[in-house]
């Protein structure tokens, strides 16, 4: 099932997947090329509708093994980065079975709406099974993350990349969360542990890359063993730089730390360094008795923030902005929004009449879509779209009371694509219809 709609509303896309739709496509974005791509992606047929591995119980046996492995692993591991270890008895692989690829999938799900938690694992499973015939896989929640491990027989690198990119897009469209996928090289299931480690390393490689959500193992993703020792952050040095208002030197100190972390490709080291920066930042915040508003609120120092930052560049930017806020607040005595959030709010105020969204705001601020989405909600308490809609409605109220413009003219002036949608949002946010508001306020 493919749903074509003119309504660019997240709740509609959610409802579509709930009803079993494979895709939700906006008519305004429909082209011959992307329609052909979607139709081709629906072809998941096989010459043998019941592959031998499924007839022999292969799928069920491996899914049980994966589930047992995940349970024991997540109970023992403190984070998502340690080297994998397993001594589980695994099913014997059929000697005639084709080579397989193993997938390691992760998604930060703290922002999922409550009604989506139950169906999200089913969605991931269905998307992979539609993409790879004979797929065996299991998913599990752990510490506000969803992890999925899968095995796909008889595939190839080109198909893996194409299918996984589409899966990432679908999940982003349906749930507005980021999915990261790592795939191993092709191999036999007797080498299960090696393939799983490759898939895991490939997925962690996404974190160190520039906006890549799907990674195929090629050996470059493996953490550098030499990087297991890391440099520690100096509280005294950072206090000295902030007291002396040495902005450039402070930022250089942070950049040097992250340059070393990038070279090492050690996920655990990045995580621990991030926590060190937050802990020292909190001590500096207390030492100078700085105000705790917006850019220096309690939320800014929460360790779990790390898992909302999908790339190492986002982690560095977060620390960079936090310490800029500490420095400027120490200097000026007040803490407002961070530079990026201020820039985003200014963008809303200056361009609200146009067809803008989070993507345009992120481009204007020079940051990623995902980073701006998280940081904006963290500091303002609302998401970007809600803030944009609220500001547009506030401007519409002024036009309703100060002018004689018709509803469709006001809708156009404040950036809504249709008068119907404008009226709907106006009623939701103000509690009145446009006519009721105009009559009540003497317009």
What does this structure look like?
This protein is α/β, with parallel strands linked by helices. It has 18 helices and 7 strands. The chain has helices at 10-18, 32-41, 52-55, 58-76, 119-131, 157-175, 192-208, 235-243, 247-264, 267-287, 312-332, 339-351, 358-365, 369-380, 384-402, 407-413, 419-430, 434-440; strands spanning 2-5, 23-26, 100-108, 136-142, 145-153, 179-183, 214-216. The strands form 2 sheets. Strands 4-5-3-6-7 form a 5-stranded mixed beta sheet, with helices on both faces. It has a two-stranded parallel ribbon with strand order 1-2. Helix 5 packs antiparallel against helix 6 (157-175). The longest helix has 21 residues, at 267-287. The chain is flat. The chain starts with a strand and ends with a helix.
Record keyword descriptors for this entry.
single chain, 443 residues, alpha/beta, 5-stranded mixed beta sheet, 18 helices
Helix proportion: 40-55%
Q: Report the total helices.
A: 18
Give the overall form.
flat
Could you report the average pLDDT, rounded to the nearest whole number? 84
Low-confidence stretches: 44-55, 76-88
Main pleated-sheet profile:
5 strands, mixed
Estimated structural class: alpha/beta
Strand content range: 5-15%
Distance between the termini: 47 Å
Strand order of the largest sheet: 4-5-3-6-7
